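HOLO CASE FILE
Compound: flavin mononucleotide
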Amino acid sequence: MTRSPVLTTTHGTLTLENPFILASAPPTASVEGIRRGFRAGWGGAVVKTIHADSMEVRDVSPRFCARKGPGGELLGFENIELLSKKSVSYWETGIVRLKDEYPDHILIASIMGDTDPASWQDLARRVQDAGCDAIELNVSCPHGMPEAGVGAAIGQNPPLVERLTRDVVSVAKVPVYVKMTPNITDIVLPAKAAAAGGAAGISAINSVQGIFGVDIESFEPQPSVGGRGTRGGYSGPAIKPIGLERVSAIAKAVPLPIMGIGGISSWQDAAEYLLLGASAVQVCTAVMWNGYGIVKEMNAGLLRYLEQKGLASPDDLRGAALPNLVSHQALDRNDRVRPGLDRPEACDGCGRCVIACRDGGYDAIRLREKRPVFDDAACDGCGLCILVCPKGALAAARYWV
Ligand SMILES: Cc1cc2nc3c(=O)[nH]c(=O)nc-3n(C[C@H](O)[C@H](O)[C@H](O)COP(=O)(O)O)c2cc1C
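Model generated. Tokens follow.
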């Protein structure tokens, strides 16, 4: 008889009771929040970035925007929030308390010093002396901090990443992870720099730099703070493809454990990150939108999935999809799909497929008696018609040429 799977996950030298970690963000902005997260079932938490007391950090209001689907579901989330509002000593006491109450949960201290590496070293010493299990260097905050020469201003500069990592590692007694910004042409370069500096792991990604929108009446970029806006960080479901791509690129090039981050709101999202090389995942926006409790179904769903697949733990998923991720050149041009009306009863003859195909390049569909008819000679197998069908009436059949 095969043994039942477990959620116990290894991330480098750390053992997690499950791979789900609260990312450094509002859900980890206080000791009480982290406590509630641990009680709900999160395997670990990264404290909202602790900064040197000398750095002035004052948040603006409002600082969020959200893009929602027709049912109110979250598609993407923009923030211009800064770092922890608590002092270093608050977190020193808090880390002691949390590790005392939850010794088996992994507690990671995210830190950000100023432009002097000594301030990062000082923070690292203080949080590790308090008992955190690991340190995460926030060299990836996309807004506000780069203007002061830190955050993504460091993360976008691989030599700086290497130097800062080395400086912190030289005083660290716990693993040091470096959190990457996706706002760079090649994320592998700072990840390799972190490895060269002695990092124990990579966290990827921080939010994607963006401008949420502009109020076309008032000309105010959103979110508008007293009439003016600034670049922010985009997060939530919309950025998952970006996170998956960055994590897979790092996994292929850098031999360090990776925490996958970006747009994770379900166990399926997490499994995708693990399959592309992450060993654990962090979640922020989905918790802000739906609460700490989402981890219950994440744990239960992942366990069911492992059982179905006959796998022993999330460790068995790590990187399992990477061999299938190849160059474009290596894709088989003779393995193709052809669309067809799979569920005629669902089709109401709306003609969306006809318009999309005609104006999307191929003009290979006609409506006959309110049903799509496909011209196989003109069809290029792109699959657009299947995607635009609002009723899910079309499906692809695979064939070989
Ligand atoms: C409101 C907000 C505040 C955040 N604050 C921090 C922070 O202090 N430190 C940090 O490293 N990342 C911070 N992040 C980034 C998240 O940790 C995470 O990397 C990003 O949101 C992508 O994950 P998600 O799609 O699950 O939200 C913040 C994100 C949001 C939305």
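CASE NOTES: The domain at 332-400 is CATH 3.30.70.20 (Alpha-Beta Plaits). The first strand starts at residue 9 and ends at 11.
CLOSED: yes
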